[in-house]
Amino acid sequence: MMDNKASHKCATCPTRHKTEWRDLTIQELAVVEQAKHAREYVPGEVLFHQGDNSDGVYCVQEGLVGARYIDVDGHSVLLRLSSAGTTVGYRAFLAKQPHGSSAEVLSPSFICFIEGAALSRLLVSNPQVGERFLEHVVKDIGDTENLYARSLTSSIKARFLHAIMVFYKQQGYRDESGNPTVKLPLKRSDIAEMIGAQPESISRLVRSLQTEGLMQFEGRKVFISNMDAVLLELGVTM
Amino acid sequence: MMDNKASHKCATCPTRHKTEWRDLTIQELAVVEQAKHAREYVPGEVLFHQGDNSDGVYCVQEGLVGARYIDVDGHSVLLRLSSAGTTVGYRAFLAKQPHGSSAEVLSPSFICFIEGAALSRLLVSNPQVGERFLEHVVKDIGDTENLYARSLTSSIKARFLHAIMVFYKQQGYRDESGNPTVKLPLKRSDIAEMIGAQPESISRLVRSLQTEGLMQFEGRKVFISNMDAVLLELGVTM
DNA sequence: CGTCTGGTTGATCTAGATCAACAGGAGTGG
DNA sequence: CCACTCCTGTTGATCTAGATCAACCAGACG
To answer: Which nucleotide comes closest to A201 if you measure CA to C1'?
Structure first.
């Protein structure tokens, strides 16, 4: 799954064009290269904990990382998922504040840590980097507001369907017989934590979606058998 | 309520120290002064609509403005309130994107509009301005994530109590007899839209909070008669 | 006066939580 | 190789927070 990990260079990183480093010069890239520590991570590993101080940022080259927030009563929520090409933990770094949530590796990943000192230098030397981060935070807040509004107005069913469609848009494909298909990257209980439900409710929902004929489930594989009906349920445009 | 509106100057603005303009030079302040259009607004007026392009930012000098988001199914949600000293609509401007929500005046307000062109110039001439906006967006996303997590994990009752406590922390006072008191700045249905409830549920909640002895309500006035119990219900630290 | 808006109350219904049991791997260790 | 435990997921029975529908009331206001 993971190839020649030791020899990864930013200059040849396949996901760099998606990142905040996309328009660095060769020299600047060398700075990042010096300040970076890359390695594989297995599910369950934690990049940083809620409340930790930030000492740099993490760049997901491959895999999936979740932002988990634990509230005062111990309730856990998955706020956001970050996949390949996404920088994680940048917000606390920019704001010089403790991390508001922890970052947990959810699937086998290859991740580069970039030291804060180098990043600080980059931010002053190349204003484009700051702009990229601004873009990122603006996108994040937009996403979060959408989810928030959705959580206030729509049912668990709608939120579950929406989550599946988001996964489908990212990683969906058509199987041999042409059916729209996704492999869910999370276990049921994590999906439940994303949409604010109990795992039992997800189970029941899965069953009723199958009998309704909207989608079929095989473990983590989802076959969307009636796409029109799904989109209709979500208000067409999503 | 509103005093000598016509003569308001940024230089003497009582809330400037809270804003992104807090560390401008006199010259820079003059630039803002030139590019600003100040006036009173009455409840119901809309500063901009969701989907509009941004042509500047609004600085709330007095009053209250709500960010209202309407989703694809027509559900309305109050995402955020902005009171005196808060800049509104800056996100769309910075991101050069359409506004993600509309801004609606909720109580009699005095608001300055600042033209985008001038702001753009300021942003390049004084890097501190950009930093202030970055701080602002980071604070906003933190707030939103908190609300989001809360919406996924806690009951309407807890969310309602939390909202009241937020108002209390901002504008609370002690009445003649020393009771912690707040005047709610919103009508019931708007409060309902903030926490994702129906107005009827708010009514019933109000009644049960009174019989429980947690708080007493008189129209929009709230007397928090048992603060300890309220804090306990919210997990003490909030 | 009628009409509107904001708020309250009642009766009813249901989505989803909760509690509890159970089933199928996947290790792990003797 | 079997016994045991851990983990993920499923199902059943029950309960309840909160939505929904409908009526109603008090001010405000032209």
So the answer is: C16
- Using CA atoms, how far apart are residues A120 and A114, in angstroms rounded to an integer? 11
Domains of chain A: 5-151 (2.60.120.10), 155-233 (1.10.10.10)
Cβ of A155 less than 7 A from strand C: yes
The pair of structure tokens assigned to A48 is: 């940083």
Identify which of A169, A164, A162 has the alpha carbon closest to the alpha carbon of residue A148.
A162
**Which region among A177-181, A192-196, B181-185 has the lowest average model confidence (pLDDT)?**
A177-181
Q: Is the CB atom of residue B199 positioned under 7 angstroms from any atom of strand C?
A: yes
Query: Which residues of chain B neighbour A140 with C-beta distances below 8 Å?
Result: 141
pLDDT in tens, B159-197: 999 999 999 999 999 988 889 999 999 999 999 999 999
pLDDT by residue (tens digit) across B6-29? 457 888 888 998 999 998 998 999
Say if residues B195 and B156 touch (Cβ distance below 8 Å): yes
Cβ distance A134 to B95 less than 8 Å, yes or no, reads: yes
CA atoms of B66 and B107, how far apart (whole Å): 9
B151 touches strand C (CB under 7 A): no
Q: Which residue of A has its CA nearest to B141?
A: A141
**Model confidence pTM above 0.90:** yes
